[in-house]
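Bug #77: duplicate submission created two jobs. Keeping one. Sequence:
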Amino acid sequence: MAKSNDPEIQYLRNIPIFKELTDEQLAQIHSKTAERLYRKGTTIFLEGDPGIGFHYVQTGRVKIVKTSDDGREHIINMLGPGELFAEVLLFNTAPYPATAVAVEDSCIGVIRNSELEKLVMQNNALALQLIRELSRRLLFAQEKIKNLALSDVKTRTAAVLLKLIEQQGTEHPQGGVAVSLDFSRQDLAALVGTTRETVTRVLSALKREQIIEIDGHRITVLDLDELQILGE
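Kept job's structure:
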């Protein structure tokens, strides 16, 4: 087991669910974690596969998708470093409810459910953090359902751009905040919950309004305040 003060376990503090744990508890979690590397475009697990582990993103990005009966892909979420996925399988033996795919080269931490359950039983602080995270995810799912039902496409597009900026935004040398979309316009449309043609029209409208600038796969937000108002 890694020593509690070893730098190699401190990355766990960047993961919200683990940040309040002691070094000794982090060392226990590190000892149960398997690190797996996935190249861009690689499937991490498929919807319906036996659910074996609790996953979190160490580096890179992951998209969570479901496939409809007609074969269309719907992106449920896009995850960056420190974010969890497949946590809903903790304490049950259900299959994975969606497919996870590496959007870019990624390092994924995996803890087998059986191992994490043992740690939770021995650690009240970890149990409380898990409950908080699961509650947060439930609120996120409810908010997304509400947005799909009540918000227009422009609002949803703004909200998605704000989330991507939060995950990977960088300051542009000429002003504004830039985000590189290393996935397709179709993926962006699926994340918004609309068609590729519609999201393209919305992006064009935002560009005409001088809220964003588009350069290939890079979108630069010129007016972050206005984008936040649109995304509310």
